[in-house]
Design goal:
386 residues; alpha+beta; Nuclear Transport Factor 2, Chain: A; 5-stranded antiparallel sheet; 5 strands
Length: 386
Amino acid sequence: MGVLLLPGCSKKKPEDLTKVTKADIAKPTAIISDEEVQQFAGDLEQALADRDAAAFHRLLHLDGMFYRIFPKTKVDQHSQLKDAQAGWKRAVETNIFGSLQSFRVEFLRVVRDADGIKARFRLAGEGINYWDVLLDRNPAGRVCMVDFLDYLAGEFVTDGQRRLMQQLMPALLSGGGNAAKGIAEMRRLKRISELSAMIRQGRHAEFLQEYGRLDADLKQQRTLMYMRVMAANTVAVNGDGAGVYEQAVDAYRREHPTAVNLELMLIDYYFLGEKYDDAIKAVEGLSRRVGGDPYLDLLIGNAHYAAGDSAKANEILRKVIQAYPWEQAAYQTLVVMAAAAEEYETVTELLIAGEKDAGLQWEIDGAEEFAGYRDSAEFQKWKNRK
């Protein structure tokens, strides 16, 4: 997410914004029907599918989002925040749109709880995540996003932004007028912006190196610890050492033992540690939390496969491709299992379906797991499929 960069200090001492808490933030009060939530969700999915940034922009109430970090009455008294608001909105809009572009985003359900009215989405890509998009109406009366709870981050984006600013720039937000402290805080904030850019740009190994050079207090900052976990996950999944991810998660668990995002973190943690029963329990817990999602069977099926129970894995993953024929990972696991079992007719069937329905481009020649298949009559059938 974009990190707020503030201009020079005001001569008039404003209200101390380091004292603002979530309790000071007004909750959305608009009356929104389920049909309107579903319409919003459809518009968001379409804007992402079309890569239409302008259409996506119309679904955001960025002023409303900014005022969930600090209330409008307080922002209006604080010239630094007021001046920075436009730049913050541009950065956040770009980052939200860019973040969602890398996922298949699918609406799950309407949620009404103490936070307000939300649209719950699944984000499926190289991993899985969920967003609860908090809704309100903009000044024109349109239903729009004013915040979102990112399950991997474990909190609303505005809560994370408020905490980050309050922890990293207390002199600027308190209006204390200490120029030297303000300059030092701006340097630290600029450093955080650079680290955030590394995550967005996929420079995960570089991020981990730079994280290691941070001062001890910055290393304990929750947002940075979360970024470390995400970077370490990518490094570990790419085969550069599961220990890096385990260390990052263990550190996060020590500092934030009750964090709600631990559930998602621990799924990969258990997979990488080959603790498949624990991984399945974590997935089942996540499913209960989101109100049920059959897509999570993909993770459960893969856990059974990794644990050596191919029959159970096959049963579960077959259901996944029936419900989600576009899911490439399920086809890939099923094909490998069928090839290992020398069920070559099934291999051909899955190869064709995976190519047609999921857009997979299979590499059969030279792949060790397909050696027996290449010697079978079914391989010729696959080659002649067109």
